[in-house]
Hints:
Blueprint: H1 2-9, H2 13-33, H3 37-59, H4 62-82, H5 84-91, H6 96-100, H7 112-124, E1 129-133, E2 147-152, H8 155-161, E3 172-176, E4 179-185, H9 201-212, E5 216-220, E6 227-231, E7 234-237, H10 241-252, H11 258-290, E8 292-305, E9 311-315, E10 319-327, H12 328-333, E11 341-344, E12 351-356, E13 369-374, E14 377-397, E15 404-412, E16 415-421, H13 422-425, E17 431-437, E18 445-452, E19 459-460, E20 467-476
Parallel strand pairs: 1-3, 8-11, 14-17
Antiparallel strand pairs: 1-5, 2-4, 3-4, 5-6, 6-7, 8-10, 9-14, 10-13, 12-14, 14-16, 15-20, 16-19, 17-18, 18-20
Helix pairs in contact: 2-11, 3-4, 3-11, 7-8, 7-10
Amino acid sequence: MDSLFTLFEGIRFWDVADILLISYILFRVYALFRGTLLFGILMGISILWFVLLPITQSRGMVLTGQVFQGIAAAAALIIIVVFRNEIRSLLLAKNLKSFFWGFPRMRLDTPVEVIVESVYELAKKRTGALIVLMGNEDLGEVIHSGISWHGQVSREMIQSIFWRDNPVHDGAIIIQGDEIREVAAILPLSQREDLPSRYGTRHRAAAGLAEATDALVIVVSEERGTVSVAKGTEMKTVAGDNQLLQVVREHLGLPENEEGGKKRGRLEFAIAGFICLICVSFYWYVVARGEVTVRILDEVPVEYVNSEPGVEIIGSVNRVRLELSGSARLIRQIGEEQINVSIDLGDVAEGEKTCKITRKNMNLPPGVRLQSVTPEEVEVVLDRLVRKVFPIQVDWVGKLPENLRLVDAKVIPAQIAFTEGSRVINEISTIYTERISLDQIEKSGRITAELDIYPPSLKMDSGAKTTVDIDFKVAERTQ
């Protein structure tokens, strides 16, 4: 759980855009293909993918993962070939909005009552009929020899088409929406052996089309005057017009009332969108975890910030060792100069402080996670800065010649000021010059000498020099 929280804590803007884009594409596939045989196959492949992917990634099953990817690629090619008609009808959408944004509209314009009334009038007259109500799949390569009609669905139109003396009465009519698209269509016959022997050519044709597509086929028996419906692999006799009305409504996805259908449709799409988002987020998480690369940075600088004015850091750690993890692409792009550790000293005035180093102390890029840091804690010693003036003393070494003696020595300037932490500066009383040998002095004069500043951390005032002039006088030694 902690690793999951850490991963999403460092998520980048482009990771969010990546998840949302793929989620929307998956949602569009659902919206456009739902209810079709193609959708069921896609769902099966997707579920198999989401089940196998975490196993192959977490267990390091490289060969299985590659084989499955090859199978998925081959399945995609097979789907394109087998379902080219459905895909073609989708790509031939009237406008881009319906493809990228619009939702498939329920066929509310189909005159269901007119169709049911016409069917039972034909049954009363014992007039045989085959009526095909299209689903989401294209029937172009399944039916044959149909005559393009494109007439408005009406009771009179259906009655006239199946009139015994009409040349096209033996074939089937194809209805889509409120339009009869084709008449005299020849349907494929079912080869099933379990169909009742009383079923004639019309019933076997209805069963054959229903088995091959998602269409609903209504059959009116000429011999018995009964009404049957075929959907998928099921064919049943309908008891009355109310039952047929219910079957047709279910096939067309029509609700009992329009408002209830809209609410149910909106709820369905909302749930589908949420599921797509969850699935893609899970997939992204598994892929991100599967591509994790570890990198070690040995010399990461430590910066101490927000210390009070007049306070100096005496003891501290200046560099730490980091172990980072993340996607290989992100890890490769990181340079050591891009990362530093920042420790806030705003709550400490003087004394010692133990600071624990965590990810919050670092400017890591989004998507990069901290695995470990060495050391995990640093000890910081803070001291108040003090300015103090010290006398300057000449550090004489050696001896003057025997006939000379040192009468006077004057240092210019005689004092110098330094700033340092109170613990250090209070232990200093005098500042000395570099060593000056007396052996070479033969007469009075002036020399310039460097100051021997210790400890080197002492800070001089601005403009001060590290050298002094020494005026000295020597005289003859009297007996």
